[in-house]
Design goal:
Blueprint lengths: L2 H7 L40 H13 L7 E5 L2 H9 L7 E5 L4 H11 L5 E5 L4 H7 L4 E7 L11 H10 L3 E5 L4 H4 L9 E5 L13 E5 L2 H14 L5 H12 L1 H20 L4 E5 L9 H7 L6 E6 L2 H11 L4 E2 L9 E3 L21 E4 L5 H12 L1
Parallel strand pairs: 2-3, 2-4, 4-5, 5-6, 10-11
Antiparallel strand pairs: 1-7, 6-7, 8-9, 9-12, 11-12
The structure holds pyridoxal-5'-phosphate.
The site of pyridoxal-5'-phosphate has 16 residues, from helix 3 and helix 4.
Length: 378
């Protein structure tokens, strides 16, 4: 069945006990057993919970994990990153993007590094640079595409080849694209990571994450780690993400259409020095984005003329776009990564331009969004 249909039905059959059309929020920590060790698949909610199972099953379906694969839902995107980190051992080497999500950079540089994991930041738009950064101890290549906040595109086919040549796993943070626009497992990725806080949840009302794989051994290892380390979402949070996923396709269509409108407006405006959107023909990897993505997504970055002061002024002057971290919700958000989401990266190889503004374009009427930016640019 097609994506939109699976988003609504996979993992979400009517409740067997009552026929409820919507997956119930199973608010229970434990499950009665018929005899010691004799149960219906659920013993304890850290190990498994039916609301979470529904979410994991639909995520596995949408990412194309196949019959042997699976998904593990986590308490946040960073909890998913931490679980992926548990796959690494002291002495293992990891390659991360040189404009990785700030939290990923913080976790790798301050947590994994303290446990003996070596890392290198590389330009993931350049397969040669990633191949050069990988060595005999490289166990994982970590890719975001589009990257946050510079919206660079990594060639997933090439990244899979580079990672596998090095004997490493390829982990793709698919938060920005969502499985509606891009399915990394089909291009050779071993692991897909999500912050479900963003587009999958879609309403800025919950924090969550997930890891998805098509590899049966890796799926089993992830389930073991999920239970052993315990960073699970509660059933209400799992329900909110499940509910969000049902409308993912229609939301992503509108996010993309609105982002294209906003990018075109900014691109033609003298008060703007640079616009970064993969859907613009001027984006250096527009053709690659068109090849591996079904659309260009809802994120737009730009640099107003006038430097960091101008960026701070514009970001403080919008009224429809709310000045806030995070992204992927129905409401439009504006932020300055250098002083907000990417503050942890300042002074490092991952530092982003101080005058860069990042927009998460919501699903409001595009005329209102353009008018808001027009006013704020002054
Ligand atoms: C937000 C985000 C994360 C971290 O997810 P949380 O849910 O905030 O823990 C990881 N990667 C990307 C690309 C993100 O945008």
């Amino acid at each position: 069945m097609e994506f939109e249909t699976r988003a609504i039905h996979d993992g979400q059959a009517p409740d067997p006990a009552t026929g409820a059309v919507v997956t119930p929020i199973y608010a229970t920590s434990t499950y009665a057993q018929a005899a010691p060790g004799e149960h219906g698949g659920y013993e304890y909610s850290r190990t498994a919970n039916p609301t979470r199972t529904a979410l994991e099953d639909v995520l596995a379906s949408l990412e194309g994990a196949g019959p042997g694969g699976g998904a593990v839902a986590t308490a946040s995107g960073m909890a998913a990153t931490a679980l992926a980190g548990y796959l690494l051992r002291p002495g293992d080497h990891l390659v991360i993007p040189d404009d990785a999500y700030g939290g990923t950079f913080r976790f790798v540089s301050q947590v994994l590094a303290s446990q003996g994991v070596e890392w290198t930041a590389a330009d993931v738009t350049d397969p040669g640079a990633v191949a050069a950064a990988a060595g005999p101890s490289t166990a994982m290549v970590w890719v975001e595409t589009p990257t946050n906040p510079l919206l660079r595109i990594a060639d997933l086919d090439a990244m899979a080849a580079v990672a596998h040549d090095a004997g490493a796993l390829l982990c793709v943070d698919n938060t920005f694209a969502t499985p509606y626009l891009q399915q990394p497992l089909a291009r050779g990725a071993d692991l897909v990571l999500h912050s479900t806080t963003k587009y999958l949840g879609g309403h800025s009302d919950t924090v969550g994450g997930a890891l998805v794989t098509a590899d049966p051994d890796l799926a089993e290892r992830l389930r073991f780690l999920q239970n052993a380390a315990g960073p699970v979402p509660g059933p209400f949070d799992a329900y909110l993400v499940l509910r969000g996923i049902k409308t993912l396709a229609v939301r992503m269509d509108r996010h993309g259409a609105n982002a294209a409108r906003v990018a075109a407006f900014l691109d033609g405006d003298d008060r703007v020095a640079e616009v970064i959107y993969p859907g613009l023909a001027s984006h250096p990897q527009h053709a690659l984005a068109a090849r591996q993505m079904a659309g260009f997504g809802g994120m737009v970055s730009f640099r107003p003329r006038g430097g960091p002061e101008a960026a701070a002024r514009v970001a403080s002057s919008t009224s429809v776009f709310l000045l806030a971290e995070s992204l992927g919700g129905v409401e439009s958000l504006i932020e300055v990564p250098a002083s907000m989401t990417h503050l942890a990266a300042s002074g490092s190889a991952l530092e982003v331009p101080a005058d860069l503004i990042r927009l998460s374009v919501g699903i409001e009427h595009p005329d209102d969004l353009v008018a808001d930016l027009d006013r704020a640019l002054g």
